[in-house]
Amino acid sequence: MGCRKRAPVTDLLRVVHRSGTLVPDPRRRLPGRGASLHPTPECLHAAERRRAFPRALRLPGGGAAVEAGPLRAHVLGAAAQEDPRPGTGDSERTTDRTPDGPAPGRSARREQDVVG
C-alpha cells in the first residue's frame, strides 16, 4: 500500500481501523476491512504521506486524520528487532517452500495470494 510493490500476503502486515486508530493485525484475525503494507518504516511513511489508509480502508469522512501510533510502534519495533549486521537482508532469507509445491501445511491457493 505504501510503496505499491506487490508481495505475497504472508510478507505483508494487515492493518485495520479500530475507534479512530490504525491497529496492526499480524495474525490477520481482526474483523473488518483491512489494508496490507510491508512492515518497514519506509513503506509506512510512504502510506502516511500519500494518505493511503483512509482510502484503502474506505473510512467515512473523506480521509479524516487517523491515529497511527500503535501501527507505528509495531513497525518501528519490528525494524529495531531485525539483525543490524550488514549482509543479512532478504537475499539471505530462507523460505520453507519446496520446489515441488507449497510448504507443508500451506494450501497452493494461499501461496498464490498476492496483494497489490
User: Low-confidence parts, pLDDT < 50 over ≥5 residues?
Assistant: 88-95
Secondary-structure element series: EEEEHHHHE
Number of strands: 5
The helicity comes to 25-40%
- How would you classify the helix and strand content by structural class? alpha+beta
Instruction: Compute the CA-based radius of gyration.
Output: 16 Å
Shape: globular
Can you walk me through this structure?
The strands form 2 sheets. This protein has a 3-stranded antiparallel sheet. Strands 1-5 form a two-stranded antiparallel sheet. Helices cover 28% and strands 16% of the residues. The model is unreliable at 88-95 (pLDDT under 50). The chain is an alpha+beta fold and 116 residues long. The chain contains 4 helices and 5 strands. The protein has helices at 41-49, 52-56, 69-81, 108-112; strands at residues 7-8, 13-18, 21-25, 34-37, 114-115.
SSE inventory with pairings:
Blueprint: E1 7-8, E2 13-18, E3 21-25, E4 34-37, H1 41-49, H2 52-56, H3 69-81, H4 108-112, E5 114-115
Antiparallel strand pairs: 1-5, 2-3, 2-4
In brief:
The chain has 116 residues and is an alpha+beta fold.
Could you name the key traits of this structure?
single chain, 116 residues, alpha+beta
